[in-house]
Amino acid sequence: MLPALRDVGDDFEWAVWYAVWRVRDGEEPAGPAAAAERLDRFAAAFGCVPELDDALRTLAGYLRGEQTRKAAADALLRISEWALERGSAEPAIQCAEAAAALMPDSSRRVLAAGRANRFFSEPARAAIHYERAMTLARLARKWRTYVRAHMGLGHVKKALGDPSAARAHFYTAARAARSLSGEKWLAAQTRHDLMGHAAERGSPDEALYHAGKALEWYPTHHSSLPALAHDVAFLLVRMHEHALAVPLLKATIPKLAPREQVIGWSTLARASAWSGDYAGYKEGAENTLRLVGLFDLHAAAAFANLASGAHRLEFWNEAEQYALRSLEISAKGAHAEAAAVARPVLEGVRARSLAVPDAPRQCRDKSRIPPLIAALAARVALWRGETWKRKLQSGREHLDRV
Predict the structure, then answer these.
(1) What is the pTM of this model?
(2) If DSSP codes are grouped into helix, strand and coil, which group holds residue 314?
């Protein structure tokens, strides 16, 4: 069963489980009569999640022989995407992998299976899907998917502790985005990933360079633009430029997708605490705790940020609780960076010391920071995201994401 779906009704849970089971395992073992009776139960699931009623009808039609494999695969991916938005790991992964099983030669569906596994800290399984997507895309000359498979595999290699391999995949994606796909918005996404990788390696100059390129190449209303603004703000937090990060975060958080707001609010809490702003820390922490139970995708990093902020303000008990929670979540998945923040905070809290090994990562040329922040703030203010021809700005919807 898929326990993460129980909060939306047993009928919906059963319908999704049954569809995945039939797609993966084939015929109903109890015979045609039992299969027809069970398919009639699909009607009871309609209305539990109204935006997924069409997907359930498509799956029921496929199991009756009335819909194509392609239609059923896309219906499963819609359910997977919905579950991913809610932070529900098992249904997101199972539905995406069932879609890939229905269309085994579709690089885009295989890519979606890799993405679901990567998001929920299953790097080994994600790597298998990304490598297969890469091969299928290269053979079919589907360069957009080929680029995104390299990007996804780069993230997987990073999570598995192989930064050199991650860097190689990110750079391959960046080169292919310009030379093979010829799409600047896709090249912007590769630069965005390279920025994050450079920041984690402690190379702020390189990170700022890639951030500038990503901002230059992203279309005005690209869905990842607010995430880029947050990531630049987080880079500033790494550099201990907290006063510069706070206003950018306040402008950006309302534009983030709900699941991304968890990390956005926690970054604001951390930056505010290090700026000596208790009210800002409290606001960020309260909103993080309100959302993290609904969208736990970034929970490890969010609790690490809260731990850092609470530690800075000498809220020892809060800092210890947040650090322990971050480490607990990190131990269950690939969250090495969150653990690297939480562990020294925990040691500092227990020693009642504010000293932690978190040296600022300074860049050689700080003059590029104010223009970048100003440009990001202006672009975020204009951003209308979902309301502005998203398919043309960002490519196909859920099928092409990394």
Answers:
(1) 0.81
(2) coil
